[in-house]
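User: Now give one protein:

AI:
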Amino acid sequence: MKTIAVLTSGGDAPGMNAAIRAVVRTALDKNFTVMGIERGYSGLINGEIISMDRSSVADIIQRGGTILKTARSEEFKTESGRKKAVQMLKKFGVEGLVVIGGDGSFRGARELSKMSVATIGIPGTIDNDLPYTDFTIGFDTAVNTVLDAINKLRDTSTSHERVSVVEVMGRNCGDIALYSGLAGGAENIILPEIGYDRDKLCGDVLKAKNKGKLHNLIVLAEGIGGAEALARKIQDITGIEARATKLGHIQRGGSPSCMDRILASRFGYRAVELLENGDSSRVVGIKDGKIIDLDIDEALNVPRHFDDKLYRIANALA
């Protein structure tokens, strides 16, 4: 193998640039030729492929987003679209491909591997919803972004003696809500894995108010409902002013944290090692602080494990 390429696909995540940098510089250090594919699988089909050298990834480790840009591709989901992608890789002499993204991106990498393209996946998503790995690139930064918002909302909520419902991202995975809620001292954390009793929630809010608590902070994962609707219900039932804040895509942006930069660097280095060893259809991850790799099919079929103990700790400390 002489030439490898790297692309980012799906939703962007802080730390993707650090991963791109690690892939490019590790590959160059091992004497590979490196190409960058812009706009994910869509760009691959359209031949948006550029040469990359060490200067191509200079001064990006601290930047959020992805310099290769990202996009979703309906055409790539078709057999004809994937054939175009493989033909384009052959045209540019690409023998190995590193895909940085989430589960959808990994499924795409798996399909390419079935068509004799050596593929390695790096988990890049703020949702942290790939169960085979303890953490994905971007999760830690997103949690810290939410935590900063929670700290600010607590100040104004206390001043006005109101309930603040904060809606965070994560799709059907509640990790961003759980981690930021625990770190931010939220009174209630509502997760899709657990669900909640609205009447009990309102009762808890009233009890806290009657005990003299000046504010009440509720962190809500997007996969279980909307903050606006919940805030209206709380205000209607309790009579206490309630406001909703939907943080939205601000959680995707910003300079990656130290943890995400190091994680991305470790993942990128390992991905290139795997290609150098002739491996394909594998993904990298981290378990108990150690970098791991396993088959894409195996990784995508790992059952989701919810951290019940962390949730119990959050409730005990609320």
Notes: The mean pLDDT is 96. Residues 38 and 68 are 5 Å apart (CA to CA). The chain has two domains: 3-138+256-300, 141-252. The two ends are 55 Å apart (CA to CA).
